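Work Package 3 (structural annotation) set out to generate three-dimensional models for the target panel prioritized at the project kickoff. During this period the team completed the workflow that converts sequence records into discrete structure tokens, so that structures can be stored uniformly alongside our sequence database. As a representative example, we reproduce one entry of 160 residues exactly as it appears in the project archive.
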Amino acid sequence: MAKSVFDGAFDQLDRAILEELQVNGRISVADLARKIFLSPPAVYQRIKRLERAGMIRQYVALLDYEMAGYDLVAFIRLSLQQHSREQVERVRAALEPLPAVLECYHTAGTHDLLLKVVSSDHKALERFISEHLMTLPGIEKIETSVVLNEIKVTTAVALK
């Protein structure tokens, strides 16, 4: 069973901090303290504790793909010929340095890997598939779904 934010040393104030930081990671400690009715030093200490505990993994700026020059988002499903830890590791090592691959998941079911990829256009996507994915040894099948429209996108996780 997955561990909840409340299974350990986290309380309602920690939850309030986490919920606010997911919405606005750049909020100042002073503003956050005012929102949750706690002193700034106490909020700062709680944030540091949440970071040390690994609850807060990192802070990032989420960019607009199109403004960054990527007009196309695609999900690519890969099936491996051989289902072994070594084969998954070889593919992971080949995909990790590729900037077009935003996310890669090892999955159960019909396919073995699911990639989220950005591309400037359909020709660049075709080049990516032919030059990077089709050249990977051990790939049995490649299926691509091009995103037509984003319906829901969030990075916020509901806290249990």
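The helical segments are 12-23, 29-36, 40-52, 85-95, 122-133.
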